[in-house]
Write a structure and sequence with these properties.
This protein has 246 residues and is mainly α. It folds into 2 domains: 2-77, no CATH class; 105-240, no CATH class. It has 10 helices and no strands. Helix 3 runs antiparallel to helix 5 (67-77) and helix 7 (131-151) runs antiparallel to helix 8 (156-177). The longest helix is centred in the C-terminal third of the chain and has 22 residues, at 156-177. 26% of the residues are buried.
């Protein structure tokens, strides 16, 4: 029974939550190591139960099993007391960061996504004059996602996934309307400024008397981007009048 339930849950996770499955495997290894044991299916079952994801709870419900009773039986099979503390898991990388893909649009918070869809339809495209404006627009929209996520108390999976999908949508709108100022090859204006500052720093390193100024170029470039972002925000305030509330 333990094997069937564990394999069923793990098999379902491979299709949509592999990172949670990896987290459960890490918890199982941690539990086994704390007892000097080899990892067994009961360790993984205990980890799955302590993790308590909807998939596992649904599998228990369909099998007509009580979560507490199954956990106690798994621990007993490992020679552990029923009072064994719950497993502490390593945090999972947020969706939409590093190598973990963003959540699908269908799994996004619909209240937040509705507001962002409205913003996508009301972007101040007419105010874009140069690529620097496009980068400022991206920064403006990214800040809007983070404010919205904070207001709705969304987790990092939602926050970064919303940012990913919204930024892609904004890029697409700009590309269709103003290809001349659209971002190209993933190179942003901010990255270009950082690269320029780095080249200047390298040149200064050849002059010993100017080494104390190393870092000024990057600082000034960052300040320049921040000032331009604020100026662009002021120029586009009227475009977002009537923004719906989540």
């Amino acid at each position: 029974m333990f094997c069937r339930l564990t394999i069923k849950s793990a098999g379902r996770w491979r299709n949509g939550a592999s990172y949670l499955h990896i987290q459960a495997q890490g918890g199982a290894r941690s539990l086994a190591a704390s007892r000097g044991q080899q990892v067994r299916v009961e360790h993984l079952l205990a980890a799955l139960l302590d993790q308590g994801t909807p998939e596992v709870l649904d599998a228990l419900s369909q099998a007509g099993l009580d979560r507490v009773a199954v956990r106690q039986a798994a621990l007993a099979a490992l020679g552990l007391p029923a009072s064994q503390p719950a497993i502490t898991f390593e945090p999972v990388t947020a969706a939409g960061t590093l190598d973990r893909p963003a959540l699908p649009v269908g799994e996004l918070n619909q209240r937040a996504w509705a507001v962002l869809r409205w913003r996508q339809d009301h972007l101040p495209i007419g105010r874009l004059r140069r690529r620097r404006d496009t980068e400022a627009l991206i920064h403006l929209e990214r800040d809007a996602v983070w404010r919205l996520s904070g207001r709705l108390a969304l987790d990092d999976d939602q926050r970064f996934s919303l940012t990913h999908h919204h930024e892609a949508a904004v890029d697409e709108v700009v590309r269709r309307a103003r290809i001349d100022v659209a971002r190209q090859d993933g190179q942003t204006a901010h990255a270009e400024l950082r690269a320029l500052a780095f080249r200047r720093i390298r040149r200064r390193r050849r002059l010993p008397l100017l080494r104390f100024t190393v870092g000024w170029g990057a600082w000034l470039s960052n300040r320049r981007v921040q000032i331009w972002d604020r100026w662009f925000r002021l120029r586009t305030l009227d475009a977002y009048r009537g923004t719906p509330q989540p």
